[in-house]
Amino acid sequence: MGGFIITPLEYILAIFSVFVISIGELWAGIFFGFLLELNPLVIGVSSAIGAIFSAFVIISVGEPIRIWILAKLNKPKNDKNSLIRKIWEKYGIIGLGLLSPLLFGTPIGSTIGVALGAPKKDLLFWMSLGVFIWTIILTLAFIEGINLLEIFNNKNKFLINI
Quick one: pLDDT at residue 6? Predict the structure, then answer.
């Protein structure tokens, strides 16, 4: 962390904070990691693990909850005419897994997949792949954004000194 002297425990707590925030929202965990000035690799790994952990938990416990709710509501498991079902049939589990980590978060994407009856292993695979891809993209975008800010800041210092 730039200029700060921290203990190993504080560093571990910082990494754990990124992990916990990423359980709820991947990009927020990455952003927070950069605010804490952690190493980008550490940020990416802890963020990805947090997001994948949330998908795993929701996918693991979601199916029994889905069955219980449907039984209580006396609704059929699959309504073939619903708008969500039509969208699901068009884009499928691959589209959901690859896009949801960025668009509405891993927990919501996993919940939608479970609600639509996606196979657990397939859903976890595609959600994890989506998290992995977006972690790389977002981490690199933050690095480049920071680099551009530093370049802009250095140019302004040069112009002021003239």
Answer: 82
Alpha helices in 5-119 (DSSP H): 8-24, 26-35, 40-73, 83-103, 106-115
Check residue 149 and give its pLDDT: 86
* Alpha carbon separation from 55 to 11, 20, 90, 106, 152 (Å, rounded): 26, 13, 22, 6, 39
pTM of the predicted structure, to 2 decimals? 0.81
Q: What is the mean pLDDT of residues 83-108?
A: 85
Q: How far is CA 97 from CA 1, 70, 124, in A?
A: 33, 24, 8
Q: Establish how many alpha carbons lie within 13 A of residue 104's alpha carbon, considering only the half-sphere containing its beta carbon.
A: 10
Q: Is the pLDDT of residue 140 over 90?
A: yes
Residue ranges of the domains in the chain?
Answer: 8-156
The answer to whether 133 and 98 are in contact (CB under 8 A) is: yes
